[in-house]
């Protein structure tokens, strides 16, 4: 029997995603801000780990928004938004809500994007790794 497709991200899903991401952040020793958004790019759940940068609260939430709004990881979007690339200047769209730093990844049910995770507080590689851990738990 095939697994049932999810149509969105429940609070239970978001808590599971955040717990896995938080565990990864603890393993690498980097406090993070972790946000999970639903299919409409609306915030479902958020945590700020003790010691995580206050300035990264907004960034993590915008990474979640961006990865759902465009159904692409922010790491990949960043590659396409450099000067001379097809999405150059995209960060200025959507009233400044677009983040092109690594750490935002869509959450999928099958091939359908149903939400996203946004992580901020470390290097781009650290943010992306923590987000990937959250995605794996979804």
Global outline: globular
Helices and strands, in order, run as HEEHHEEH
CATH topology: Beta-Lactamase
Number of strands: 4
Radius of gyration: 14 Å
Percent of residues in helices: 25-40%
User: Uncertain segments of ≥5 residues (pLDDT<50)?
Assistant: none
**CATH hierarchy, class:** Alpha Beta
Q: Identify the CATH architecture.
A: 2-Layer Sandwich
Number of domains: 1
Question: What does this molecule look like?
Answer:
The chain is of the alpha+beta class and about 140 residues long. It has one domain (about 10-135): 2-Layer Sandwich (Beta-Lactamase), CATH 3.30.450.150. The protein is built from 4 helices and 4 strands. Strands 2-1-4-3 form a 4-stranded antiparallel β-sheet. Helix 1 (about 10-30) packs across helix 4 (about 125-135). The mean pLDDT is about 95.
Q: What topology emerges from the helices and strands here?
A:
Blueprint: H1 11-28, E1 33-37, E2 43-48, H2 55-69, H3 74-80, E3 104-109, E4 112-120, H4 124-137
Antiparallel strand pairs: 1-2, 1-4, 3-4
Helix pairs in contact: 1-4
